[in-house]
């Protein structure tokens, strides 16, 4: 934004502040209207909950004369409550969800009570036909089915000597349990509906208070801010113009060093501040590009050299290895132990050099990615288990934690497996075969984050920047290609890898890989 526009804008700032306050008040009014609507709904819910409890009470008191009418009324109010809750605009509170669950539970309990009432009525009818004595007191017993079923139980047990496992007694006891559960659920419905109503009223009051505070505080505050901003812009116009002149003058003389910003209050959207920031960013980018270019040239030269050397060494090494094997086979037990040991040493060292040559070739040219879908958690466990065959891990403890039981991704499974083989092998060597290795997986939306940590001797600060460079190693016996290959594999999968380490406290490699879905 130009200085001219800033000066003009300063005069409009007061009006803008007022407009902002007006917008705030309007939005607050909209929220008040929403909360008022919500309050009306909660008040309706509370009222219908009270009516539901009233018909519930009548159902138990006046059964069986008014049972059918009260039952219809209960179901009607339940349906109305469900419709109101279902028609509420989001966001819905936890209490509305809880109330909906309670209503569903209440409906199930009431239906169970109706079924139990039919069951005990049928049992009572059968007893009327089989017991003249019960026939005389049946009306008294039936009148207590919904009001005091336990009194019927005690009466039948005392007078008719019914056992506890009698079907009629069991049904009455179950009916009493369901009635008590229904009443408790009804109390919970009424409690939640009152809490909803109270919350809605508190929200309306809160928004009204906010509107009053905004009018009393922000109007004067906006006026002071507007006037102070005008004075600040006017007093700094000349100084900023002079600063712009100085920057252009230095640039014209070829001084492209980053401009220091300490002691100067920059406006990041001001022409002068933006110009200097862009200039400093350009200088940093140029320096970074130069470093990357040098690194790329160095790695390309190393890769070319490694590829050439590996190709030249590969055939002689194969001949030496095959010749040593043939010699060992033909000799059998004819040679002395010293000669046999020498031949075995030739074979083992040839294999070691062949592995180094293979690493050189893999680093120099890499393999074509063969992408497939696989499960990462099991693959990591399998890598560690299979590594035990070639590496002594009897004193190594291994833990694997994942945010999900299964983490699927699309990548070159064999190369990702090679990453963990190299990292686990390095960890074991760093701990001298004794310690712990932990892996943490985090399955995110489009990426998988992996942290591989060990409790080894760590890496010094002077070596951290070189850790992924080829042929750099701190080991007595190492090619320095393991982590370089890991770095190449991660980069070829469009991932990122970082390392954190501290002497005698261990090392952690953090890898971020796209899931490839």
What's the arrangement of secondary structure elements?
Elements: H1 3-61, H2 67-86, H3 94-130, H4 132-143, H5 149-159, H6 167-252, H7 271-331, H8 337-365, E1 371-375, H9 376-390, E2 395-402, E3 408-412, H10 413-430, E4 434-443, E5 447-454, H11 461-464, H12 482-492, E6 496-502, E7 506-514
Word description of this protein:
With 517 residues, the protein is α+β, with helices and mostly antiparallel strands. It folds into three domains: 39-207; 260-365, Orthogonal Bundle (Helix Hairpins), CATH 1.10.287; 370-514, Heat Shock Protein 90 (2-Layer Sandwich). The protein is built from twelve helices and seven strands. It has helices spanning 3-61, 67-86, 94-130, 132-143, 149-159, 167-252, 271-331, 337-365, 376-390, 413-430, 461-464, 482-492, and strands at residues 371-375, 395-402, 408-412, 434-443, 447-454, 496-502, 506-514. It has a five-stranded mixed β-sheet with strand order 2-4-5-7-6, covered by helices on one side. The two termini are 43 Å apart.
């Amino acid at each position: 934004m130009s200085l001219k526009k800033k000066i003009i804008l300063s005069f409009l700032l007061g009006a803008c502040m007022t407009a902002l306050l007006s917008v705030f008040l309007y939005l607050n009014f909209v929220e008040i209207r929403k909360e008022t609507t919500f309050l009306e709904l909660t008040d309706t819910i509370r009222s219908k909950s009270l009516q539901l409890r009233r018909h519930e009470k009548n159902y138990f008191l006046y059964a069986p004369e008014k049972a059918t009418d009260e039952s219809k009324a209960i179901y009607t109010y339940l349906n109305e409550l469900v419709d109101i809750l279902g028609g509420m605009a989001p966001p819905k509170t936890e209490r509305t969800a809880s109330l909906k669950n309670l209503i569903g539970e209440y409906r199930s309990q009431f239906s169970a009570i109706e079924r139990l009432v039919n069951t005990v009525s049928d049992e009572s009818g059968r007893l009327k036909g089989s017991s003249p004595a019960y026939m005389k007191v049946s009306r008294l017993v039936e009148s207590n089915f919904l009001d005091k079923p336990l009194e019927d139980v005690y009466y039948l047990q005392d007078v008719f000597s019914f056992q506890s496992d009698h079907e009629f007694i069991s049904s009455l006891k179950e009916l009493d349990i369901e009635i008590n559960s229904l009443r408790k659920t009804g109390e919970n419905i009424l409690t939640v509906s009152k809490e909803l109503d109270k919350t809605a009223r508190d929200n309306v009051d809160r928004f009204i208070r906010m509107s009053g505070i905004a009018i009393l505080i922000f109007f004067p505050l906006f006026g002071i801010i507007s006037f102070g901003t005008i004075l600040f812009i006017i007093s700094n116009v000349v100084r900023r113009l002079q600063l712009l002149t100085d920057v252009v003058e230095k640039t014209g003389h070829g001084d492209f060093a980053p401009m220091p910003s300490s002691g100067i209050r920059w406006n990041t959207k001001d022409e002068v501040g933006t110009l200097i920031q862009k200039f400093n960013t350009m200088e940093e980018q140029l320096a970074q590009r130069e470093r990357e270019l040098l690194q790329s040239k160095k790695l390309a030269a190393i890769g070319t050299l490694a590829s050439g050397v590996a190709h030249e060494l590969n055939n002689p090494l194969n001949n030496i290895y095959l010749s040593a094997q043939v010699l060992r086979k033909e000799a059998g037990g004819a040679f002395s132990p010293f000669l046999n040991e020498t031949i075995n040493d030739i074979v083992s060292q040839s294999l070691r050099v062949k592995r180094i040559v293979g690493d050189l070739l893999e680093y120099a040219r890499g393999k074509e990615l063969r992408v497939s879908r696989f499960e990462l958690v099991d693959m990591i466990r399998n890598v560690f288990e299979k590594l035990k065959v070639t590496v002594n891990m009897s004193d190594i403890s291994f833990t694997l934690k994942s945010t999900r039981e299964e983490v699927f991704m699309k990548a070159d499974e064999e190369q990702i497996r090679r990453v963990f083989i190299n990292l686990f092998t390095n960890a074991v060597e760093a701990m001298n075969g004794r310690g712990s290795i932990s892996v943490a997986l985090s399955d995110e939306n489009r990426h998988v984050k992996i942290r591989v940590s060990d409790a080894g001797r760590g890496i010094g600060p002077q070596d951290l920047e070189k850790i992924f460079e080829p042929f750099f190693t701190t080991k007595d016996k190492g090619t320095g290609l393991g982590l370089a290959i890991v770095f190449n594999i991660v980069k070829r999968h469009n991932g990122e890898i970082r390392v954190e380490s501290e002497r005698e406290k261990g090392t952690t490699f953090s890898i971020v890989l796209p899931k490839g879905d």
